[in-house]
Target: Protein IN2-1
Amino acid sequence: MAASSIGYLIHINFNPPIVLPSRTKSTSLSFTFSNAKHPFKWSHRICALPPAVSVMASGSSREVLPSALDSSSEPPAIFDGTPKLYISYSCPYAQRTWIARNCKGLQEKIMLVPIDLKNRPDWYKEKVYPANKVPSLEYKNEVKGESMDLIRYIDSNFEGPSLFPDDPSKREFAEELFSYFDSFYKAVISSLKEDRVNDAISAFDSIETALSKFVDGSFFLGTFSLVDIAYAPFIERFQPFLLEVKNYDITKGRTKLAAWIKEMNQIEAYTVTKRDPKEHLESYKRRFLSQL
Model:
């Protein structure tokens, strides 16, 4: 008699998101399913994400992203009690807040409202945010802006895993890195605008040094935090442009930075916000090559 086989299709959703404890290397799940004829035991090993980073809700199912609203679009129900995060899919500052929202597991709590920055709807400036920039957060009948302030606000005022450490030495260093960001950004941008990379080299050397301070992980503060969220969208854009246009690999000779980029790309809450590197490359070419 020929052997027969039974197939099982199993879907497992985690809601709320799983948060793996600090320093966890891995964990496992197992269960046993059986009936009189076909006993079945299943187990699965899960590699740990960086501490304080949540597995996105609904397992590997990604959020269905809404289309960007333009001048022809009707506004959402403004100030209806639903928190709303106004962003642009292409804006690195808005991407910061989007990542923070995802890492907190707030996909179903904070509504994502993308805006077409090239064809902005009038109602956004008139009814939502007079500064007419993204990101902005509509919450409790108020609208707040500025990405660095918003990632802190989202972390402090919404449920979900904390994205800022309790360790005083790490908090102090985090403040230094927040303050350094503008200098880092201006140094790299100056290299993109001009036919040289000296300023970018110095800036990324400083990043490598910063990533070497704590040895309990590959992130700026050892464990994943708001600091990584603050820098990731910009390094994501700088890397492909410098490599193709300036022939400069920001990871060459920088093992800490290479490891950081690799670890960041393991975090789904971040990777779902990324754009195709070719899009960044073409955007930066239009922006900077015409100036050379």
